[in-house]
Specification:
Number of helices: 18
Largest sheet: none
Order of helices and strands: HHHHHHHHHHHHHHHHHH
Structural class: mainly alpha
Strand content: under 5%
Distance between the termini: 21 Å
Amino acid sequence: MGAERLARSGLISLTGSAFAAVAALVVTSIVGNLLGASGTGLFFQAVGIFTILTQVLRLGTNSGVVRFISAERAFDRTGAEWRIVLYAVVPVAAVSACASIVLWLGAPGLARWLAGPGEASSLEELLQAMSPYVAVGAVIGVLQIAARMLRGVGAFTLLQSVLLPASRLLTVLIGTVVALSASAAFQAWLWPLPFWLLVSILVITAPFVRDFRLRHRFRDDRRATFRSFWRFNLPRALGASLESVLEWADVLIVAALASPEVAGVYAVATRTVRVGGIVDKAMRVAVAPRTSSLLARGELTESSRLHVRVVRAMILLNWPFYFLLISMGGSVLLVFGPEFVQGWAPMALMAAATMLQTAAGMLQSILLQGGRSTWQMYNKSLAVTISIAGNLLLVPLLGIWGAAITWVVVVVVDNALAAHQVHRRMGVHLAPRALIVPALLPLVVFGIGGAAFSWWGGVGFASLIVGTATLSAVYAVVLWALRRRIGIAGLWRHVPFIGRFA
């Protein structure tokens, strides 16, 4: 994948991820404004449980599909991609179907264990409502990453980042307005899944069949087998499960130990911070196949160069959002309702920690695509342990602040371990000096500039709209002027109506 093709893939993925993030924020705003902090807390508690279950039940196959198909293509082999897809889909479908049944039967006990004060019956209803969809959600995740490999970034982005979020936005709006309950909102959030499962199957059918017809063309002992696929995936399955638990455990613990209102405020703050992850996700989707191919051939120097280019772009695209949350966070949270503004300071702390994670780069992808899924599993095990222990200890004492402090500790430990492994043990390096200018630009424009707008306009919608529009325009001009100095000239060539002047 050349630099221009990589830039194009990154922009496609980033655009789709941005749409998905905006759709998720609109959903959060609808739920927050119509259901209040208490209803929002229950809604996101159910979303967190469902997300953990479906991510765990994918058994880590997303990374396996990317890695093994990329390895086949790195050596120009054909006729095995269909088999790799089946290696992933069939076990996931079988295991997740059994899990759906277990969830239905165990909903009462699980609700009593996870629910906050007086919320057990409501959570039980939501657990039983989600049980038929758990297997569907798990299989969709595998099929969509298969679409990414068999059909390209465009098909994957359209399915996962545009169509599914858009349909969820519509159904949640209808369900919440009609019934005004967390149960109705959550069930409406689930409704689109069966339809998009069928669409995902149709999308991969043609390339799947085409590759199946080439199955006898190559004979090679190095080709992927069910055993080799799952030897890689078993530790990755645990690692992926731990990542999902790490993302949602704090929300579930706050919901169980604090009031529903506190859980709602914290859920909105954390979901807002995680919107910045769209850039990380987009870059991983675009770059993972290239990273896997380079590492498979032992090209560490080129891997390091690719890593630096990607991290530089991630900082330029990600840090403005995080600085906006730090400098104008009260106005941002006001979008979800006045009750949520109290989460500004903890959200700012979490945003600062997540900026550090962005600057560390694609450490997790490099570990996985370099075949170090076991290392990543150990890292995530430690991170989850710290997260659960920290939240259980600090949330009863400090509330939201306890969860925010735990978040920071987890981010620092997780990234420090991964950085040591990637830079020192794998030999894929990051050049800190190349990141200085990309880091200073969002600091000055959105950090200092955002603080000035907050001081001038206070907390309010007008301040947020005027400030964001003004700072974004200034930032775009600065990026254009310095596009060659900061190494992003190639990106502009793929932006309609601008590329011809780059």
